[in-house]
Structures are given as C-alpha cells and as structure tokens.
Amino acid sequence: MTSTQSKWLEAELKYDSRVVGKHEVVMTRGQGSVVWDETGRSYIDCVAGYGVANIGHCHPDVVKAIRDQAERLLVMPQSLPNDKRAEFLTELVGVTPAGLDRVFLCNSGTEAMEAAKKFAITATGRKRFVSMKRGFSGRSLGALAFTWEPKYREPFGEAVDNRNVDFVTYGNIEELRAAITDETAAVILEPVQGEGGVRPASPEFIQEARRLTQEKGALLILDEIQTGFCRTGKMFAAEHYGVIPDGMTLAKAMAGGVPIGAFVMTADVADRMPAGGHGGTFGGNPLAMAAGVAAIRAMKREGMAEQAREKGAYFMERLRAIQSPKIREVRGMGLMIGVELKEKSAPYIHALEHEEGVLTLQATPLVVRFLPPVTISREQIDTVVAAFERVLNSVNPRAERQAELAAAQKEEKQTE
C-alpha cells in the first residue's frame, strides 16, 4: 500500500461511522466494466455499485448529461415543474409496463419502498402486508419491516414494527394462498431475490401472486430495485413472467450511477394518496433527472436488455462448465448470477479481489454473486470465470482459518 493510499484509507476509517465494513483498497476511477485503485491496479467489476452501474462506469452520455445540467440547474423542488424532470418522466413511463404511468420520485430504493408502503395503505385502506422469507426491502425502519432476515432487524427491537407483516416461503404457493386475505394491503415481492441468494421466482409463483391479489383486492408490488433496467435480460424482470403489477419500486441503475429512486404505479393507486401525503426535498432533482434520461436512452439504443440476456447465458454456461466439487448450483437471470458453494463464500470473494483483481459480492454466506455491468465483454467474462476456477482450486478455507487463529494466539502471547 502506498503512502498516498494509506492517507486516504486512514482518513476514511478515521471519520467514517464504521457501520459499513471497509476493504483495504481505495478506488479512484472507473470506465465500463473496469475500476482502478489509487495504485493504478485494475479490477473487473462484478459488483457494479451493488447493481447500479448496469450501463458501465462513467458512460459518456451520462457524464455529458451531468456536466451540461450542472451548468444550468442543480435543484428544484417537485412543487415547481422542471423541463428535465418532465423529460425523464416521459422516458421512464415509456419503458414501464402498460398502466404504470404515475411516478413518485425519490433518491434511493429504500425511499421507494417507504413510498410504496404508504401508497398501498392509502390505496386499499388496509395495513397488513405479505412479504417473503429471505427477502430484502431496505434498511429504514419502515422498509425493515418487510425484510425477513432477523440480523437486520434485531438491533432495533420493537422500533421495527412488523406485526402487520406475514412472511411466506419464497416460491411456496400454498403459503402464499393462506397469507393473502381480505386484510392484505399488498404483497411485496422480488422477481429475483438478490440478498437472499440470487433466486429467481417461478412463473407459477409470480402469476399466482398476481391472481390472488386481484381476487382479494390487494396490490402486487414488485421490488425491481436490483432487477430493473436490463439486469435480467428484460427492461424489467416482470416481463419474464407476463404479469403487470400495481406498482414497482425502482432505483439503482435508473440514472447510471447518480442517486435516484422511484415508485411507479397505476393512476388508481396514485390518486388515493391525499395531497401532501408524501414528499421529499431532493426527489426529482434536475441533475438526477438528466442522468436518468441519458441512462434510459442508452439502454434502449444499445440494446442492453438483449446484451444482458446473451451475456448472462454465456456467463452461466461458462460457470456451469467448471468442474469443482465445491459448487452446489449456478443460478440466475440475465447478468444477475449466483454461484452457491458447499462452504462459506467469503474466502473465495476475498481471493478473487486480492489475487485475481475481480470484484464480487456475497449473497447469503454460501453464495458468490456476480453483478457486472451489462457492458462487460465476453473476453472479460472468460477472465472472471478462469479466475474463479483458480481460486476454487487454490483456496483452502479451513487452512486459512487455522492460520488466522494461530496468528491471533501468537499476538495474544506477545502482548501478555
């Protein structure tokens, strides 16, 4: 580590809240599917900002749009109409499923989920929700109520009120039927569970959720925060299932890297929210709107949904060809891919970064998650797969753990 890199890392560690675990690396720039650290080392990025950089880092159209807009206008509240906001809304509604033509603009996926929760309550007059086991809906107190994993909720105790949330096993139609009642306001559902292990829903499950919610007068809200904007091989994952929900939560890739969020819904849902019932200072700001216009147009012009479909199929084919007893399953949709191992994935993720220059994510303790930009090339995919195969063959988690324990014991003796 260079002295300059140590300085930047030291400063971040000194002043940061320490809530987020830090890698011992300082990233300074990115282009397409590659990022570079302060020393100039390159990495193939299969994290993409947790699925944000779908169109690649620093897409030239987005960079130009941000630069141009920054010279004109940076902020304007939604109470005052704006030309770039109108342009963005027109672009967004142009790609959403038919009937989802009303939009609440915000700044993140969690904010989009908070909005969805409030709109569902006012639209139905009900307060109960159905969410999924292994699902992830955000970290705010309201969104946490829909998040099943106890580790996210437990530190906050009763402040996270999920007494009105019924959790069902993802994919279990019988449990879904039992859970949706005349008191249900909405079913919250990821078409592909991300944090939960990269698990695509079956068509039967999604379609039955649509049928049951319509039958009971509840809403179907699809969480497309990670699956949206070409990630799964369609503009939205809902298109794979042939269903149109009552609403979708959107964020991440929608503006090419600039913070943004939205809840898109039917007019009937939107019109039942009282005036002033929800809001936000920075939602729909002109800078994010300009970036969003450029990003969506680039997705359409460059055929990124088709790219994700073709490259994702190739990526999974290559991963499934790896002959390793450590692999239990390769699964995914488009370029949202998970490799479930028979042992903890963390040592392999660490080795990919430090030994191979490949950035990946964990999704449950056993799954290595690959979320590369759609712009990733087949040659880069080949490089990633070869690197993954090497670390599968070289990493011995048990030996590494024993070495860590031995080092810790040695340090304890030295300090006694």
Automatic annotation (TrEMBL):
It is an enzyme of class 2 (transferase). It is found in: Cytoplasm. Transmembrane segments: none annotated. Keywords: Amino-acid biosynthesis, Aminotransferase, Cytoplasm, Lysine biosynthesis, Pyridoxal phosphate, Transferase. Pfam families: Aminotran_3 (PF00202). Pyridoxal 5'-phosphate binds at G109, T110, F136, D223, E224, I225, Q226, T281. One of its GO terms (molecular function) is transaminase activity. Homodimer. Catalyzes the transfer of the amino group of L-glutamate to [LysW]-aminoadipate 6-semialdehyde, generating [LysW]-gamma-L-lysine. Belongs to the class-III pyridoxal-phosphate-dependent aminotransferase family. LysJ subfamily. This is [LysW]-aminoadipate semialdehyde transaminase.
